[in-house]
Amino acid sequence: MKIAIITGITGQDGAYLSKLLLEKGYKVIGLLRDKNSINFDKLNYLNITKRISFDNCDLTSMGEVINVINKYNPKEIYNLAAQSSVGMSFSNPIETLNFNILSTANILEAIRLIDKSIKFYQASSSEMFGSYNALPFTEKSIFHPVSPYGISKASAHWITVNYRESFGLFTTSGILFNHESVLRDNSFIIKKIIRTAFDILNNKKEVLEVGNIDIKRDFGYAPKYVEAMYLMMQYDKPDDYIISSGISLSIREIIYYIFDKLNIDKNKIIINKEFFRPNEIEDIYGDSSKTKEVLNWNYEVSFFEVLDILIEEEKKLYE
Ligand code: NAP
Fold this sequence. Notes:
Layout: E1 3-7, H1 12-23, E2 27-32, H2 41-45, E3 53-56, H3 62-72, E4 76-79, H4 86-91, H5 93-114, E5 119-125, H6 148-167, E6 171-176, E7 179-180, H7 189-201, E8 208-210, E9 216-217, E10 220-221, H8 222-234, E11 240-243, E12 249-250, H9 251-261, E13 269-271, H10 289-295, H11 303-318
Parallel strand pairs: 1-2, 1-4, 2-3, 4-5, 5-6, 6-11, 7-10, 8-13
Antiparallel strand pairs: 9-12
Helix pairs in contact: 1-8, 3-5, 5-6, 7-9, 7-11
Bound molecules: NADP nicotinamide-adenine-dinucleotide phosphate.
């Protein structure tokens, strides 16, 4: 049985990736920052918690990372753990940079020291491209990140590439554009809009307060995006891949779609300048042709179809 270690297993992607790997017959080991204070809601939602083995590991400690890899002898490590909020990275830049970069470097160095045949996946992000504006972004586009989060992800990405090029490790980097699901934390914009829409319908909130809704993003569906992570780890050559839908939508279009579908008055949308970020990417979308051609990943779903799914799932959570 193949053993895979997943960091960030309690997050959205960790939950969907665990489900996929379990379906493929893997033994899944989930690394937690602290077994006693962990929220298993997402894994419970997918009904897979009992099928996973968990262990504690402080990924910023080289010693702990070495111990855990020696203990489980995995064939694959998926590094999904990160302080993943762009907004929070502006209020906690040092913590974001420190954790997101050091955790990646520690795992790669441990693999180099212990067993160079262990395959490694890094959760990279479209936020690495930042203000560079030659759209669509491809694997060859230049990075100019505009947030501490983007900078941390760009650094971790280049560490990943460097261990491939310098030490011959099997390291892959999935450059994922925003992807959503019912398992997103409430603070992320799409989940926040849908959740608040139901709160308004149920008289728990009066309005939806948002920041700059004219920015455009390339949104996709998380359960489909984790398939690409798995595929790039099975391909015979390690590489970097863009995972995107190829189309950007403004937050305004998305809010209007959801409010129209749920018959909510658009006067209930309040723009609050306090939610604007110090530095913001206006528009961003990716070209995932390489991923589709090389890995046979297919992604045909429009984001409005994804919104329909998310609204239905949220409705069930509300009942
Ligand atoms: P998420 O739901 O926010 O999950 C983040 C995970 O990282 C959680 O399991 C969290 O554990 C863990 N984590 C955070 N800080 C940690 C720390 N200091 N020590 C140990 N664990 C820590 O993120 P996601 O949406 O699943 O994304 C997965 C990865 O893909 C992240 O690296 C993210 O940056 C990247 N990414 C996401 C997107 C997207 O649109 N979702 C796009 C591009 C890249 P706790 O449960 O203990 O908090």
